[in-house]
Fold each of these.
Amino acid sequence: MITINNITLAYQSKTILTSASATFTRGTLTALVGRNGAGKSTLLRAAAAIDRPQSGTVTVEGNNLHTLSADKRAELISFVGTHRVRVANLKCRDVVAIGRAPYTNWLGSMQPQDEQIVTDALRAVGMEHFAQRAIDSLSDGECQRIMIARALAQQTPIIMLDEPTAFLDIPTRFEICRLLAELTRQGKTIIFSTHDIDAALPVCDNIAVIENHDLTLYPAPAAEGVLKRLFSL
């Protein structure tokens, strides 16, 4: 469980959120939505303890993330940003193996159990047959699955993703959202920002809406009217 407690956020001189609070329970999928510039990415980065809020706290099972070491935070939250890894000749398996970094020694040596975790992560996203493929040879949708596998290999209870369906074709957007929903049934708590309301709404448990510097968490079935008004659907 992750809780945002009275978070205030600003970007440069612009206020984004004021005293926002929400709790995301174990095994739930939440889409974070808002108009362009509402602060979705900024909120995700603060919630993942990548950036610090102006005030307020983020807690996981009662632990204040910003008082924990980087290694401990890496055992609690994995973050998939908008950047796609496109390094020439870098194998997909090696990208996923980066998720084991918090658990390996200072040389990054992989033990047999780490290798198995990487294999399991690739299988979980349907990419086990791509393990030896170069990451720069993949489509955008395939690359996104590899990035999700990397987060799975990190073995955190919470996964946050910033616009995981951006720049994907429509069928792949729905596939990624369904994949995220499947992972929550394994007990993961997943929060992702998105503009793809049609793909997210059918599979999400909750919709978190940023509007007028406020954050409101709705059960997905109750959010449809709010989304229609916000986006004029």
Amino acid sequence: MGDSGRREHPIDGPTVLIAAAKASVPGRRLPTLLVVVQRELVDEYESYRRQFECVADDDRAIFLTDRSHWTALGDRLGFSDRETDAVRRAHTQQLRRLGSTTDRREEFETALEIREAVVIGRD
């Protein structure tokens, strides 16, 4: 969150810490990457809504995309493989967290076997 209290990216704090640790990216670097990704994705929200299944839609929408999504986006944004992996892990972990709190974890785990999670924050 910035000084105004507004979220700059849609991933919860504990989720960011877990993803950073698992991807070998400094904990202070991942939030910056997530802000860059959020800025890119928010402009594409309508396109995602038309193309992909949306499994959650409140202050953040969670889409299930094709398996190559994060590699392509990371390449386009100039991220290293580790940075892309950290962002992917953060978005995936956010979906898992939602699954745990809504009793849909098994459903989401099955979906993640063939698709990737993309979380887009909405104001």
Amino acid sequence: MSPLIPDGTRVYAIGDVHGRADLLGRLLENIAGDATNSPGKNPSKSPKNGVKNVLIMLGDLVDRGADSCGVLELLAARLPKKIAKEFEIVMLRGNHEVMMMDFIRGAEDAYDWLGNGGIETLESYGMDPHDRDIDELGAEFKQKLPESHLKLLRKMKLRHRIGDYVFVHAGIRPGVALKDQDKDDLVWIRHSFLDSKVDFGFVVVHGHSIRRAPEIRPNRIGIDTGAWISGRLTALVLEGEERRFIEC
């Protein structure tokens, strides 16, 4: 039996953005247009005002690319009108958001973030992070970071389930029940998940591991197409048994 999204619901899941506000802006406009032009496969079973659209961001919104500030601003305050008013929006946490929040809190390993794309993020907020004391950088960043951006980062979830699909940033640990998954695995795991052929009882939709094209396996779908280096940002569209992709 094919995995299903419940009747009357359509899901748009977007892979790792990594600071590419330009691509995200175009993709969101394309998604808004797609939702407008797609009334749903089972309108008699859909909500009163049409199909329920759900937008899921799979994490790693920030770092590496040039405009992480623009990405968070777009999602916090400048979504296309249709998406802002009519979509359920789910924000999932990626490992880069974890590192960014550790930096804001002043964790001992805060330097790890700077070496993994954090410098580009600070620069997108108008900061010069080079040859600076890390405590000084942290204090300045707290002042520069808008409250709306911080609120968005704080409300991110680690996983979300709809029908026969589970959405996470990196993946899950095979052999461990979903409710017992370690939070670090959900944002960091790679090979033990990617190489697994285990039937999880649902299909995992994830980002985190770059591929040239969406990777479809019986137990998972990976949609990180490396936007920050490839210039290709991918969204997976799920409705009923249907799967399709929107890219920009």
